[in-house]
Design brief:
mainly beta; 134 residues; 38% strand
Length: 134
């Protein structure tokens, strides 16, 4: 379990910046970030990046206005469907088993957007189908 009293970011002399995402320590880029060429386009559903937000581990590789440190949650015992959009009639990408970890990157309108585990599919799940921090 992650020590929530410890700081998420470490700024010793601006030489190292890292974040704990509940699973692993993520090394983040340091210094000034700049766009030195065209931004890479991510294939939908394969990386935790969308037009306005991306997982902090993608900073420096994908240009978006905001980056988020994931908030690990546990999928409720009954499991849930991972959907392509935050609405009940959206296409089902896959079924998430109960007890598995879903890394939440954004919450809006009763839906959580994020990634199943560290490298799984990306999509939306009803917030009601998630339990507290994993």
């Amino acid at each position: 379990m992650t020590d929530i009293s410890a700081p998420i970011f470490d700024f010793p002399g601006s030489q190292h910046l890292s974040a704990l995402d509940g699973h692993t320590r993520i090394d983040l880029p340091t210094g000034m970030l700049s766009l030195s060429g065209p931004s890479v386009t991510a294939e939908a559903g394969h990386l935790p990046v969308r037009g306005d937000l991306a997982h902090i581990k993608l900073a420096g590789r994908y240009f978006v206005p905001h980056y988020a440190v994931p908030m690990p949650h546990t999928v409720a015992a009954a499991g849930t469907a991972l959907r392509a959009a935050g609405k009940p009639e959206a296409e089902v990408i896959c079924a998430l088993p109960g007890g598995s970890v879903f890394d939440v990157l954004d919450i809006a309108g009763g839906w959580a957007w994020g990634q199943h585990g560290e490298d799984g599919p990306v999509g939306y799940v009803p917030l009601a189908d998630l339990e507290g921090a994993a």
